[in-house]
Amino acid sequence: MSFAGKYQLESQENFEPFMKALGLPDELIQKGKDIKSVSEIEENGDNFKVTVTTGTSVISNCFTIGKEAELQTITGEKVKGVVHRDGNNKLKVCLKGIESVTKLVDASTIVNTMTVGGIVYKRISKRM
User: CA torsion sign, 13 to 90 to 125 to 78?
Assistant: First the structure.
């Protein structure tokens, strides 16, 4: 299955505790908790471009599976990491102690989980 497409956030779990664990101020957490982000994924073989737009914030990352790339984290920090493919439908990366797993559940649903210090933040997005 291909990840390529545009997806809109449908639901999320543990947003506030996860963002607090990352050290984000309460003011930013309250602003961001109800915004429905849009993720656009371009996939060409092992090459990916992922752009996530949340309100006025845009994070764009380009990477090749299995090769080190500079990636921007959810907090805006840029760090080096390697994205791995697990089977046909799962991408995994660990950035600064945050483990991120993106799974294509079916042709129209992506589930992204990010874990830090035992707190799991889950995002479910549907193809637009």
Answer: positive
3-class secondary structure, 101: strand
Residues 6+ apart with CB under 8 A from 110: 3, 7, 39, 102, 103, 104, 124, 125, 127
Q: Say if residue 88's pLDDT is above 80.
A: yes
Rg (CA), the chain: 14
Residue with tokens 């090769």: 67
Q: Is 128 exposed, middle or buried (0-12, 13-18, 19+ CB in 10 A)?
A: exposed
Determine which helix (DSSP H) or strand (DSSP E) holds 11, and give its type and residue range.
strand 5-13
Dig out the tokens for 82 from the structure. Answer: 């390697």
**Distance separating alpha carbons of residues 52 and 73, to the nearest angstrom:** 11
pLDDT in tens, 14-24: 999 999 999 88
